[in-house]
Amino acid sequence: AQKELAGLVGKEALTSDGVHITLRANVDLPEEAGAAASHGAEGVGLMRTEFLVVGRTAMPTEDEQYRAYRKVVEAFKDQPVVIRTYDVGGDKLPVGGFPHEPNPFLGWRAIRMCLDEPELFKVQLKALMRAAVHGDLQIMLPLVVSVEEVRQARYLLEDAAAELRAKGVEHRADVPLGVMVETPAAAVSVDSFVKDVSFLSIGTNDLVQYTLAVDRGNASLVTRFTPLHPAVLRLIARTVEVGHAAGLSVSVCGEMASQPLMAYALIGLGVRQLSVAAVGISAVKRIVRGVSTERAAAAAQAALAAATAREAADILRHALRAEL
Ligand code: PEP
Ligand code: MG
């Protein structure tokens, strides 16, 4: 089976009815970019920049970040590299000095922290715009709940670009700006975002956590962490439908994308871009090449109408077995 998977690296992720599914890599550290490319990733769907902060008490400098982002972009000449701005707080690496919170998952984290600390945020935005000169870099904002956050971030991006311009530093100011859809608020009101963003990426790890009110890191709750819950499927379906109708690309970069049954559900819901850990790309490709989007869509429609996650899973499993 390992050999079979290895043989898929150079092959296209094409469904049995001829639909290309774009498979990108999730990257935590710049050093992983080369391996992601050699696993056949068509770019990076999510780089989690908070890993640049691991084990440190201060944020990395602009030059340090620039070098890190440039390294990833250069590993993927001409293919998109989506870099997410800092998602610190919650379960994510509270950086030295950030306040302890009683309820960090609902707390001062991710885009909230960045908008409240514009000087810190602008250092990252400048590094990103400088690295964007070297390839197809795109910026993604985590944990948004309102388009106001996008507008504030864009304002800071313009401000940061003006500072680079004034200093004569080479950069690209018109970097595509997209958002993670990983809160129920963003999914339900996704129509209010589409005019202000260049792309959407569904983060199912947090979307499941916040929709079902189930802590993603709590071992006592693993059986209740059910991405196939019809509530979650309906939020994904809505995001895909509204995003595509607005002409935006809609990808999924949560863990859900890397599991066969769930990847099948996502394809059935109309998702055409998945981003997974580099080592998981061939396994997802194997599923893609064995299924038809038409049958997946029929199964997904039935799963959307299910009453429970278990029922949805049974429907999808039955359909997937018939295909493979
Ligand atoms: C997600 O929430 O699904 C996601 C991809 O981001 P993270 O796992 O880093 O929160
Ligand atoms: Mg997330």
TrEMBL record:
Protein residues bound to phosphoenolpyruvate: 48, 84, 205-206, 216
Superkingdom to which the source organism belongs: Bacteria
Known cofactor(s): Mg(2+)
Catalytic activity reported: L-histidyl-[protein] + phosphoenolpyruvate = N(pros)-phospho-L-histidyl-[protein] + pyruvate
Molecular function as annotated in GO: kinase activity; metal ion binding; phosphoenolpyruvate-protein phosphotransferase activity
Family: Belongs to the PEP-utilizing enzyme family.
Function: General (non sugar-specific) component of the phosphoenolpyruvate-dependent sugar phosphotransferase system (sugar PTS). This major carbohydrate active-transport system catalyzes the phosphorylation of incoming sugar substrates concomitantly with their translocation across the cell membrane. Enzyme I transfers the phosphoryl group from phosphoenolpyruvate (PEP) to the phosphoryl carrier protein (HPr).
Stated name of the protein: Phosphoenolpyruvate-protein phosphotransferase
Residues of the full protein shown: 253 to 576 of 588
